[in-house]
Specification:
Blueprint lengths: L4 E4 L6 E5 L4 H12 L7 H18 L9 H12 L2 H4 L3 H19 E6 L3 H8 L5 E5 L3 H10 L9 E3 L10 H11 L6 E5 L2 H11 L2 E5 L15 E3 L4 H5 L4
Parallel strand pairs: 1-4, 1-6, 4-5, 6-7, 7-8
Antiparallel strand pairs: 2-3
Helix pairs in contact: 1-2, 1-5, 2-3, 3-5, 8-9
Length: 244
C-alpha cells in the first residue's frame, strides 16, 4: 500500500462513549433551567418538542442521510415559548442560550467517555508519519469538546463533523472533504471506523482503504460490504501500516 494519510471515525473507534439521550434527568434539568429564562414547560413537553423538532428537520432535509442541528432545535423551542421576561434578557445571554442548552443536554446524557486501549500510543506513532484527519457523525456543539476532554483534539487536521454540513455518513462527501483538506487522493488514504455501513461502506464508496475496528458499538453487517482489514486491538493498525 502507498498510504499517505490516515483518517478516523471517533465514537466507537477512538472513543468509547455511552449516552442516554432520552433520560428523564435531561429534560427535568432543562425545564428547571428554563424557568429562570421566563419559560415554563414541563419536562415531558420539552422532550416532545425536542424530538419532534429533530424529526421535522430530518424530514424536511433533501439529503439521503440527513443530520440534525441541535442548536437550531433549542433556538426554535426558545423562540416559540419566549415570554416578555425572556425577550427582556440581555441580548448576549439570549443569543447563547441555544448553544448552552445543546451542550447541557449532551453533558447530562453522557454516561461514559474514554479512549479505547492503546489509542494514544498508536496516534503518537502515526502523527510522526502521516497527516491525520477525523470524519465523524456528530454535532460541532460537542464533538470538539469531547475530543479535547480525551486529549486528542490536537492530533487531527481537518476535523470533519457531519453537523456542520447537514448530512451524515455514509455520504461520500464527508470523506471527500477530509481528503481535499489534506490534499491526498482517496487511493492513498486509510480510513478506520467501527460501523460497517456508515464508516466502511462510506469510505469504500469514495475509494479509501478501510480498516474496521471491532468495538462494542456499530453495525457489523451491511449488504455484501467487506473491509480491507479488520482489527480487534488498536496496535494492530501499526502492523497493517508496517510500522514498529
Amino acid at each position: 500500500m502507498d498510504i499517505r494519510a490516515v483518517a478516523f471515525d471517533v465514537n466507537g473507534t477512538l472513543v468509547r462513549i455511552l449516552t442516554q439521550d432520552g433520560m428523564d434527568q435531561i429534560f427535568r434539568s432543562v425545564a428547571h433551567f428554563l424557568t429562570y429564562q421566563g419559560i415554563d414547560l414541563h419536562r415531558h413537553q420539552i422532550r416532545d418538542l425536542y424530538f419532534g423538532a429533530m424529526k421535522e428537520q430530518q424530514q424536511a432535509s433533501p439529503e439521503e442521510h440527513p443530520e440534525f442541528d441541535a442548536v437550531a432545535i433549542w433556538r426554535s423551542i426558545i423562540q416559540e415559548h419566549a415570554t416578555e421576561f425572556t425577550r427582556g434578557l440581555p441580548p448576549g445571554k439570549l443569543e447563547q442560550l441555544p448553544l448552552f442548552l445543546a451542550e447541557m443536554y449532551r453533558g447530562i446524557s453522557r454516561c461514559r467517555l474514554r479512549l479505547y486501549p492503546h489509542v494514544r500510543e498508536v496516534l503518537d506513532v502515526l502523527r510522526e508519519r502521516y497527516p491525520l484527519a477525523i470524519v465523524t457523525d456528530a454535532q460541532s456543539t460537542y464533538a470538539r469538546g469531547e475530543l479535547h476532554k480525551v486529549g486528542l483534539l490536537d492530533y487531527f487536521d481537518p476535523i470533519v463533523v457531519s453537523g456542520d454540513h447537514g448530512y451524515r455518513k455514509p455520504d461520500r462527501r464527508l470523506f471527500q472533504l477530509a481528503l481535499d483538506a489534506i490534499g491526498v487522493a482517496a487511493e492513498h488514504a486509510l480510513y478506520v471506523g467501527n460501523d460497517l455501513h456508515r464508516d466502511i461502506f462510506g469510505a469504500r464508496e469514495v475509494g479509501m482503504t478501510t480498516v474496521k475496528f471491532e468495538s462494542d458499538q456499530g453495525a457489523d453487517v451491511h449488504l455484501d460490504c467487506v473491509p480491507d482489514y479488520t482489527i480487534t486491538e488498536f496496535r494492530d493498525l501499526l502492523k497493517i501500516l508496517d510500522l514498529p
